[in-house]
Design brief:
The structure is a single chain. By secondary structure, the protein is an all-alpha fold. The protein has helices at residues 3-16, 21-27, 30-39, 44-48, 53-68, 82-97, 115-124, 127-138, 142-152, 156-166. It is globular. It starts with a helix and ends with a helix.
């Protein structure tokens, strides 16, 4: 796996579901943590400490505020442009229905045009297919999503995700 793919998978995981102890443990691994703190310095405190149940709750509330209940930052292509979003969702759903793609269980409940789904798919393809996939499905809207996420997020983890998507 390339470093770029690892970053996209990390971003996809953080956008697909609330932060779990397992995801936090990945973020807090010594090498990973140091890189993430360089990308988003405000993450230093939360990456260097043991999380309390309240810290997990605060992150979950922010996840819901940003992406779930009347989302401040919709995580689906459909929120950014209607026509192409339907095309994106249709292509991805076709690939899923016909066995060309298989998503992990935690991604199966997401819409086909959800940013986490698209980022995960991006990490599974390479070469010209990857270039075309990014051009068709990610470039048209994910930069706008990342900018909005950076502006509206109140939690360092989600500002980090925005910056990961901008690189």
């Amino acid at each position: 796996m390339t470093p770029e793919s690892a970053v996209q998978q990390l971003a996809a995981t953080l956008l697909a579901k609330e932060i779990t102890p397992e995801v936090l443990a990945t973020l807090q691994q010594p090498g990973t943590s140091e890189i993430l703190k360089q990308i988003e310095p405000s993450c230093a405190d939360i990456l260097d400490q043991e999380w309390t149940p309240q810290a997990f709750e605060d992150a979950a509330v922010e996840f819901c505020r940003l992406f779930v209940l009347n989302p401040a930052v919709p995580a689906r292509a459909a929120a950014y442009f209607e026509k192409d979003a339907l095309e994106i969702a249709g292509k991805i759903q076709f690939m899923l229905d016909n066995g060309f793609l298989e998503l992990p269980e935690s991604f199966q409940t997401l819409a086909p045009d959800h940013v986490a789904t698209l980022l995960l798919i991006q990490t599974t393809i390479s070469g010209d297919d990857a270039v075309q996939f990014i051009s068709d499905n990610i470039t048209p809207w994910v930069p706008q999503f990342a900018t909005s996420l950076l502006e509206k997020s109140e939690h360092p983890i989600y500002r980090l995700v925005a910056k990961l998507l901008m690189n």
